[in-house]
Amino acid sequence: MPGYKGHLLGSLALSGSAVAAAFWFGQIHLDLKIIFILLCISLLASLFPDVDTDSKGQNLFYALLVALDLGLMIKGLYKWAAILGFCAMLPALGHHRGWTHTWWAMFLVPSAILVLPMIFYNISIEKLLPYYLAAIVGYFSHLLLDRKF
Questions:
Q1: Which CA distances in Å does 18 have to 97, 103, 127?
Q2: Distances (CA, A) of 136 to 38, 75, 113
Q3: According to DSSP H, which parts of the chain are helical?
Q4: The pTM is what?
Q5: Averaged confidence pLDDT in the chain
Q6: For 145, what's the count of Cα atoms within 13 Å in the CB-facing half-sphere?
Q7: What's the pLDDT at 96?
Q8: How far apart are CA 7 and CA 123, in angstroms?
Q9: CA 60, 67, 38, 138: dihedral to nearest 10 degrees?
Q10: Which of 5, 101, 135, 141 could in theory staple to 14 by disulfide, Cβ–Cβ 3.0 to 4.6 A?
């Protein structure tokens, strides 16, 4: 099983390929900010299944989330900060290699990216779908490297 560096590299390779393919087929436009956000979501999602155990990956994951959450609060985006905080607490609901290492969690955990912004901000699913898919790609890369597929 790879460590956090292996999961980050695997996610970068898979999500980078997915973004390149989406660009090639005209599904996304060359907006560097959006592409950066998609890659960051994928990288965080690739670490998510292992954040339920004390590790360097967990430390990196939560350090990034704390910085992002603080940035959202400073900008006054409290609902977005609450969504992020809610998602960050999910791994505490199980044990290592439990529910976070299942195929259904790969679809369920990122669903917060779809559902919560639709509820709080009335954002259409079409606008949120790329971010949801980026999280699935990152999560899938983790499960693939852990040989869960």
A1: 26, 19, 17
A2: 11, 28, 11
A3: 4-24, 32-47, 56-74, 78-89, 103-108, 111-121, 125-145
A4: 0.85
A5: 88
A6: 24
A7: 61
A8: 31
A9: 20
A10: 141
